[in-house]
Amino acid sequence: MGFPSPARDFMEPALTPNYICGITPSSHVIETSSGYAVIEPEHQPVQGDRVLLSFCGRVQFAKIMGHSFVCDDGDTIEGEACSDARVLGVVTFTVTDHYKRDARDGSPV
Asked: What angle do CA 73, 43, 92 make, to 5 degrees?
């Protein structure tokens, strides 16, 4: 059998999205128009967090600013409307696809 290799002491785990983003069984990975977002539904949102929000039958990303939500499209949900909004989870990571291909000719955009 011999001796175990001392190189094993210096081996690092393979870099996978699960390892890099700390994906747990409760995490959700959602495809967006620019890549992917990792959502943690068990995290308590705090000021400045980006969250996934359900509002008026629409799911969208928003940032918590004061007592309001500022959505990615620039709309603001504030006042009594905030009581209708439901936070689905906190965005912990975003993975952006920087190498999208143009559908017309297959070249990178």
From this structure: 55
Q: Is the dihedral of CA 89, 91, 95, 100 positive or negative?
A: positive
Tens digits of per-residue pLDDT, 83-107? 889 999 999 999 887 776 555 555 5
* Nearest of 15, 26, 29 to residue 95 by alpha carbon: 29
Backbone angles phi and psi of 27, in degrees to 5: -70, 150
What value does the CA radius of gyration of the chain take, rounded to a whole number of Å? 20
Residues 36 and 32: their CA atoms lie apart, in Å, by 5
Task: Report the distance separating Cα 37 and Cα 92, nearest Å.
Answer: 8
Whole-structure pTM value: 0.74
